Amino acid sequence: MINADLAVLKDCVEWLNDGHQVQLVTVARTWGSSPKPPGSLAAVREDGVLVGSVSGGCVEKQLAESFKSKDLTRVHSHRIDDEQARRFGLACGGELELVYESLNDVAELQSIIASLNKRQRITRTVSIGSAQSSIAPAKPHDTFAFDNNTLQKVFGPEWQVLLIGAGQLSMYVAQFAQALDFNVLVCDPRPEFLNAWTVPDTTLLKLEPHDAVLQHAQDFNTAVLALTHDPNLDDAALLEALPMSCFYVGALGSKRNYERRCKRLSALLEPSELDRLHSPVGLAIGSRTSAEIAVSIVAQLVQSRVTSTQQPAQ
Prior knowledge:
Blueprint: H1 4-17, E1 22-32, E2 41-45, E3 50-52, H2 60-65, E4 74-80, H3 82-87, E5 94-103, H4 106-117, E6 122-127, E7 133-137, E8 145-146, E9 150-155, E10 160-164, H5 168-179, E11 183-187, H6 191-194, E12 203-205, H7 209-216, E13 222-226, H8 231-241, E14 248-251, H9 255-265, H10 271-274, E15 277-278, H11 290-309
Parallel strand pairs: 10-11, 10-13, 11-12, 13-14, 14-15
Antiparallel strand pairs: 1-2, 1-5, 2-3, 4-5, 6-7, 6-9, 8-9
Helix pairs in contact: 1-4, 5-11, 7-8
């Protein structure tokens, strides 16, 4: 699976190259139970074809039916009444403010896509009431912002998870993580495990765990999960991952195994680095089967992802 923003931008480029008129729609503000956060994207063609989502389904049909070809970027508010909310499974109505812009600069979109493919962060700034937009490398603390005059949208690396171990648990984790927009990489130096891997659209790494972390997990938007239950493999990955800026680092094991692991790693890591380790990995939901444990792990990944986006990355 690819990042949702990347999928929308790729469709925009394809549509523009095919001669379509295209509008990009960005959630600027929300009130009440609006299900999509600020920064969410959708794009619509003049014939009503739409990709992405700005409301979870509440106003997408309206977007597709009310295409307006205008050169100026504009803002419009949409209210989701209680009847619409019930229809789409929301607790109550809400309101969202959307920024509409007619796209024509394919080169700018292609530049953003190229940066995303290289796992680089880009800030795109749009001037409301004009046809002007610009892109620049994102600064470390850049976030989505809207002040009625300008809209700043940060396009960053897609969230990804590096799995150490290609066993059954990792297969479940990979599938659940993909459904939640994580890119999945799998490392296992044991051929018998890697050769048995069956989850499609994942990247298999024939590397030692420490090399996999060093090569693929050096940015904030990556999580590292050590799931082999072999301390020689898991510890090697953790020693490299815990000092890095990964938003989440977790390891499979019981509380007793966690205490043993801390004793082994304490001589090689700073206390603040070791404190970053989530172990036993996953939320405490009473899970027992591999699938249940995978649910608890991915749930904690989502929890950490949400928390990490609410504070500046280091």
